[in-house]
Amino acid sequence: WQVEEADDWLRHGNPWEKARPEYMLPVHFYGRVEHSATGAKWIDTQVVLALPYDTPVPGYMNNTVNTMRLWSARAPNDFNLRDFNVGDYIQAVLDRNLAENISRVLYPNDNFFEGKELRLKQEYFVVAATLQDIIRRFKASKFGSTDSVRTVFDSFPDQVAIQLNDTHPAMAIPELMRIFVDIEKLPWDKAWDITKRTFAYTNHTVLPEALERWPVDLVEKLLPRHLQIIYEINQRHLDHIASLFPNDVERLRRMSLIEEGGTKRINMAHLCIVGSHAVNGVAKIHSEIVKTQVFEDFAALEPEKFQNKTNGITPRRWLLLCNPGLAELIAEKIGEDYVRDLSQLTKLHEFVDDDLFIREVAKVKQENKVKFALYLEKEYKVKINPSSMFDVHVKRIHEYKRQLMNCLHIITMYNRIRRDPAKLFVPRTVIIGGKAAPGYHMAKMIIKLINAVAQVVNNDPMVGSKLKVIFLENYRVSLAEKVIPATDLSEQISTAGTEASGTGNMKFMLNGALTIGTMDGANVEMAEEAGEENLFIFGMRVEDVTELDRKGYNAQLYYDRLPELKQAVDQIRSGFFSPKDPNLFNDVVNMLFHHDRFKVFADYEAYVKCQEKVSELYLNSKAWTKMVIRNIAAAGKFSSDRTIKEYARDIWHVEPSDLKIPPPNEPRDAGQDKTPNGTAA
């Protein structure tokens, strides 16, 4: 079973961060709004202090160091004490914890919205502190010119770009409006124009249960002025829609920031779209779904607002640092420049038929596998066959990622070995890893099932070293850096239309694994770059899933039609893998038959057949490695350098610069050393 424990990551201090108490800022909660001739005033609030911690983020070999600023919550010294009638001094001091709890713990959900007050406090806390900091910095710069007393904010969007990483920081939109209108006294229309030109929104998921929809009552209690501003934004937005589409009340209902019916809720994605000048998805197929399905009314209104920015990964961590052997081998063939410009990997196509290079690539992979096998034997006390195919499925545990389909394939392989022990079987070590959200019951049952199947398979003498199953506990970046370079087969098997992009898929591709996957997320573009014949693509496409939904998905049909699927499911149901508790997996089986939104049975047959093709190719080491080289050569598009350049050019309107500032120990040209007014820099 998955068991959680607290990760007290600051217990021993953090040498990379520096507290900056001189920039501490107040953040307000609760209170009420007072309207007067001079405008709105948010009063009688509770104050929590935001203490910044700065972490240096060095660029790669370019003498540039940027700063990541994180915020810690602190109670003010008069917290609960300014109230002269509080007689219980001790309790007042203990209650400081209530304020400081804001930055205590990260909500560990993946693709799931849990509408808790503490979570909304966290979201607003970090947003309010950051925006105050941005405005302080803008005013201190030469751009924040002042007309007598008031700052002129006209150039604000030219100096400041704020990217909303999903809807979690969406309260930044009404907060910036509050600062401009209530504090800086800008007229609404001017404030709104500046706000829209400052913000851009990246959508990260299309799963409805993941979309943030905050109850109006909660926002009214916690952030009363922000609710008023959201209502005003919505009113103006709906007035505009009504002027374009008179009498279309259904459209107004669909596009409103406020969802009526039951408890009134604020649709944060709608707020982000209306308050931003650009909206993007994170892979081509995802951005299409965002435009044509999830936000189709908004895209019809402003098609130019919607873009794509396919995700990327950093080749520094995900190749040089985790796989020095492969990085060095590539550098020997094409030079070292590819580290900064990953598109240069295409030069490897010249060596696809180079027998020596093929052998060297295979050798590096084998060395990585041996190293990881030793790690597994040390940590898990299981004997691993390093010449077996390392079949790896590591990512968060979620029904849409279909670890269950992998599990059914493991059971199918197990049954085939037992049915015909003499038949040739390509040995596999199946490695599954990832965490479930602590409250996600089904995901935790899936983890238990995988471990139960592993227990049976790994201890069956008929199977021996042909098939081993390992569940990697506490999967995290440091473990990914070990397993990814050792992987032969990367599992990317989400139901088409559910994985926005994925980035693990790219890490495996860059590290010489082949991909078995559906046409989902960035897999589509990986197949486009490498050629579909160089990936193991299977299963329903988005159109097929839509069609199956229209017809109605009936799991029973597949169970009745496919004997190997029936056998595997019957074994789970009968307690073959849980003899001490035969009903342990009833919930899982019941879900698969009656409410499987992700249609595991519908892709099972195509998946198993595709896995047979994988095994067949693995027998031919040379052909396998040539396909690996074609994949590495096609991985250049998936560098985060390319992704960030696209955000910079298309959304933030800044030009990337390759200028390298000289290190402090080198004398600089006198001409370079001057700022425009001629004083020393």
Automatic annotation (TrEMBL):
The modification N6-(pyridoxal phosphate)lysine is found at K507. InterPro entries: Glycg_phsphrylas, Glyco_trans_35, Pyridoxal_P_attach_site. GO terms for molecular function: glycogen phosphorylase activity; pyridoxal phosphate binding. The keyword ATP-binding does not apply. It catalyses: [(1->4)-alpha-D-glucosyl](n) + phosphate = [(1->4)-alpha-D-glucosyl](n-1) + alpha-D-glucose 1-phosphate. Keywords: Allosteric enzyme, Carbohydrate metabolism, Glycogen metabolism, Glycosyltransferase, Phosphoprotein, Pyridoxal phosphate, Transferase. GO terms for biological process: glycogen catabolic process. PANTHER family: GLYCOGEN PHOSPHORYLASE, GLYCOGEN PHOSPHORYLASE, LIVER FORM. Allosteric enzyme that catalyzes the rate-limiting step in glycogen catabolism, the phosphorolytic cleavage of glycogen to produce glucose-1-phosphate, and plays a central role in maintaining cellular and organismal glucose homeostasis. This is Alpha-1,4 glucan phosphorylase.
